[in-house]
Amino acid sequence: MKFNILKTSINLLFFAIALSMFNSCKHKGEENNVLKRPNIIFIMSDDHAYQALSCYDGSLNQTPNIDRLAEGGLIFTNSFVCNSICAPSRATLLTGKFSHNNGQFDNRIRFDSSQLTFPKLLQESGYETAIIGKWHLKSQPTGFDYWNVLPGQGHYYNPDFIRMGKRERVEGYVTNLITDFSLEWLENRNNEKPFCLMIHNKAPHRSWMPDSTHFSLYKEENFPLPSNYFDNYEGRTAAAEQKMSVIEDMDLVYDLKMYDEEGEIPSKYRHWYLPMLDRMNEDQRKAWEREYNEKTKAFKNADLKGEELAIWKFNRYLADYLKCIASVDDNVGRILDYLEQTGLDENTIVVYTSDQGFYLGEHGWFDKRFMYEESLKMPLVMKLPGKSQAREINQLVQNIDFAPTFLDLAGIQIPEEIQGASLLPLMEGRDSEDWRESIYYHYYEYPGAGHSVKRHYGIRTARYKLIHFYDDIDTWELYDLEQDPREMNNLISDPDYFEISDELKKNLNTLGHECGDSIVSYLH
Fold first, then answer.
1. What is the pLDDT along the chain (524 residues), one digit of tens a residue?
2. Quick check: 245 and 308 in contact, CB under 8 A?
3. Which residues contact 195 (CB under 8 A, 6 or more apart)?
4. Beta strands in 99-222 (DSSP E)
5. Cβ neighbours of residue 203 under 8 Å, at least 6 residues apart?
6. HSE-up of 476 (CA within 13 Å, CB side)?
7. Is the peptide bond before 275 cis (omega within 30 degrees of 0)?
8. Structural domains for the chain
9. Is the peptide bond before 141 cis (omega within 30 degrees of 0)?
């Protein structure tokens, strides 16, 4: 044990010295110094819940390849999103700014790609940059020497890609293809430059279509039911008005693949299902129908009702969701294997995260958006160059911190307009007494297609969370996460917590002002 601690300390010391050397370089125009800077591989999946990574939990599934990152690097236990929805999260990643400052409030807006982003600054300082996979920002990627992205949400089977402006359909499964293109780029990149490669998976985004190679997984489809699956939302008005219930809102055909030609199974989104299957080639379609036709017949024969149907839906949902993650994990392994085989792992930082968290039946839900823990918290693991022991980082971090971290690693001065903080001091194990003690959150996509989740903003500390729902509603929620980690008991009217509530409201107002969101003080 003492040996491992000593080994970890030595590794961290060497890592800190190396990074200090990187940061002391004047990069522009000094080729030798440029070559010393670390490569960056940033892997981001879509809607990958931290509960579905075995390095965080392990009760649902195993992710051995993502665990390789955690076993040889850093696992962040308190990593959070600023606005839990796809496009805003991606804009925050690129700019290091909150939604109200980068302009990407929701999925409907076209991202202003003319603004400053960390890939542009890396590119200007001598890095070769690339993004492959899901983009979901409507505008054309900028700041990349190479880009090959999915239009919109993309498709699981035989998806279209837009490669440097040219659109083409490619046969195969999307997670495998994104990795194929990433490995191709790594093999053919400019070896005279450090690089930053962003690998953005579509999976495990709805509607959770697994690769046929993983159909054999989770045959039992019997997962531990969350204790609050049958939540009645007492004391939480906004939660009671959402439309993302597994029981009520998950579609039997589109989401759960229970398609019958007779049309006897009720479905609001049946018309979305067949076009996805029509993209498949003959072999893919046959494999798909062998898998799901049998399940559909069994479902119809069972004629489930009430609680039995609700639990069946939960298990059916998780089976396909976790099969999609199995493909993600396999392909993370392909990337890590390549780095080790080529020796690139000695000078490459690998990051794995999700664009936000996701509900896996907690509160009876799927999707994200709410400031409750399951959608607020993102997985975040990092593999540092070389060999090291696993280490947990428990400070509060957010996706505004990615941009300044990557710039800091590359020795680039962080622009004042970036609102996040570099994670480098935490990564190096340096004193972090002055690190933030709270994080700020703001969700905007209402009204609209956002599952009727009300607009809200809030503050989270190590122990407490205060949320204000507004627009066509005006309610406050307060949670003691130490006593109530499932966030079932709204304490806003509890006299024992009035002092804490008042203090959090003051801190929320200060935090809103500091990050430039004037709506906070206006509304309360």
1. 333 333 444 444 445 544 544 444 433 333 333 337 999 999 999 999 999 999 998 899 999 999 999 998 999 999 999 999 999 999 999 999 999 999 999 999 999 999 999 999 999 999 999 999 999 999 999 999 999 999 999 999 999 999 999 999 999 999 999 999 999 999 999 999 999 999 999 999 999 999 999 999 998 779 999 999 999 999 999 999 999 999 999 999 999 999 999 999 999 999 999 999 999 999 999 999 999 999 999 999 999 999 999 999 999 999 999 999 999 999 999 999 999 999 999 999 999 999 999 999 999 999 999 999 999 999 999 999 987 778 999 999 999 999 999 999 999 999 999 999 999 999 998 877 889 999 999 999 999 877 999 999 999 999 999 999 999 999 999 999 999 999 999 999 999 999 999 999 999 999 999 999 977 655 65
2. no
3. 39, 40, 127, 128, 129, 130, 186, 189
4. 128-134, 146-150, 160-163, 166-169, 195-200
5. 45, 46, 48, 156, 174, 175, 324, 325, 327, 328
6. 18
7. no
8. 2-208+326-427 (3.40.720.10), 454-523 (3.30.1120.10)
9. no
Structure tokens at 369: 């958006």
**Whole-angstrom Cα distance, residue 289 to residue 281?**
12
Burial class (CB in 10 A: 0-12, 13-18, 19+), 152: exposed
Radius of gyration of the chain (CA): 23
Half-sphere exposure of 23 (CA within 13 A, CB side): 17
Residue 353: exposure state from Cβ atoms within 10 A (0-12, 13-18, ≥19): buried
**Long-range contacts made by residues 428-434, C-beta under 8 angstroms, separation at least 24?**
428/12, 428/15, 428/16, 428/19, 429/12, 429/16, 429/391, 430/16, 432/395
Instruction: Give strand pairing partners of 458.
Output: 441, 467
Task: Tell the residue number behind the tokens 């390849």, with chain if given.
Answer: 65
pLDDT digits (tens, 9 = 90+) for 464-495: 999 999 999 999 999 999 999 999 999 999 99
Residue 232's Cβ-count burial label (10 Å; 0-12, 13-18, 19+) is: exposed
Residue 418 has which token pair? 């970036």
Cβ–Cβ contacts within 10 Å for residue 337, how many? 14
Model pTM above 0.90: yes
Question: Biggest alpha carbon distance in the chain?
Answer: 71
User: Closest Cα partner for 443 from 455, 459, 425?
Assistant: 455
How many whole angstroms separate alpha carbon 259 and alpha carbon 265?
A: 7
Task: Give the pair of three-digit tokens for residue 235.
Answer: 């004391």
Phi, then psi, of 57 in degrees rounded to 5: -135, -80
Q: Which residue has the tokens 């839900």?
A: 365
